Amino acid sequence: MESFNKVQAVRLRSHLDKYLVADDDNQTVRQSRNGTSRRAKWLVEFVEGKSHVVRLKSWNGMYLTATDLPFLLGMTGKKVLQTTPDHSYELKYEWEPIRDAFQVKLRTWCGTYLRANGGTPPWRNSITHDDPHTSSTQNWVLWDVEPVEVSGTDLVVDFLSMRMSLSSLSDDVSGSEPGSPMSVISTNSPRLSSKLKSSNKFRSGIDQFYNAKVVRLRSHHDKYLLADEDEESVTQGRNGSSRNAKWTVEFLQGSQYIIRLKSCYNKYLTASDHPFLLGMTGCKVVQSLHPKLESSAEWEPIKEGHRVKLKTRGYDKFLRANGGVPPWRNSITHDIPHRTVTQDWILWRVDILEIQVQSPSLKSHPSQPLPDEDPESIDSNVSSPPKLDGRIIYYSVADDNGDVDDEAVEGCSFTFKGNGVEELTRKMEEETGLEGIIVCNRNPLNGKLYPLRLQLPPNSATMHVVLVLSSSKGEF
């Protein structure tokens, strides 16, 4: 319950690394990778006289409700919907948070739990309430609770919806009882905002770099960030196996959330203040080597599903992979996307190429290079991340035809310590709850799937696999 006590709104993240969202039809709920939309935000209401339960209100004023309608005939799971406030439904939109380590289970009025389903359609991305009956589905009822800051607009909309649905509320906000809906609104204080921002740091994208010594950054165009041979410009390209696609990760002392990226030419990825084209908002991103490194060469990873945004410290903009016609095609700038069509242009997938073998813990005291310091000695000003025990496996589940739908392209991930294909297959069956699966790789040349037969790649390299049911009709 403590996860909800001092927050105005939350996002709920499932074991599939997807968020609970309220659909526009004002009825259904599902899972989605887009955790930044208003649909993923749930306002927290406390129930008078019941300190152990909460209500969760969607962006459109509807309540998350555990119904008694079966999700599929003959199956145990029941539908979870959005509903309007109704006295006869009162118990059904009350949820009891039960802590499980660092996560929570949300228990319903009938003793079942809010559950995020995986597998093939129609289960994929669905939300039900049920009891996990097998060990492989125990994690399906666990949720990460992420505090969300509430804007003034959210508060006004929430206030109006509650005035319409709960006419018995007191007009005096300051005199409302602790735990009442009105006391939730009145908690918009600078101290609370500070706590919310601090807790969100733990959901930053820095965890994708902690075990990395060398990485590759892949854009939404499926191209890689490349350091050009002129040792100055950076572009995108298809050749992810070249040394120009490799970037060495350096952690900044005094901050656990900031990195530098060094190219194969020992120059740093730097956000400049030179416009890419006159009259346009984007500025150039270059390779540079300053006698004294400035904030323009420092990047803050921000997690977005299984990808990250890299925020410039000096300009508060994001590393952006551009598309379109020349000169924009394959160019790299730093900018803020202002249109919906370009929102994904600042998202990057991190491929770990080399893991940090020996990794002293991060030091707490800040240290910056001196103005006259030799650039080659800058390594002494950064500290290494902790070592990862195992390799990261990203996976997607194909449908009966062997195809992976758009919602599952990014896949899910977990850490795997073994090296054998059979061992990995068993682990994947436990992770997904599916039986009779074939673990496949995708041929980078023709895009076709082929089963893994031999040992896994050496050096605990990160893998991207696709799970195909043995009954699939697809060709591979």
TrEMBL record:
Annotated DUF569 domain ranges read 1-143, 207-348, 390-467
Q: One Pfam family, please name it.
A: DUF569
Compositional bias (Polar residues) spans? 183-192
CDD domains under this entry?
beta-trefoil_FSCN_ACP-like
Region Disordered, as annotated, extends over: 170-192, 360-385
Gene3D superfamilies hit by this protein? 2.80.10.50
PANTHER family found in the cross-reference section: ACTIN CROSS-LINKING PROTEIN (DUF569)
Q: What is this protein called?
A: DUF569 domain-containing protein
| UniProt organism field | Fagus sylvatica
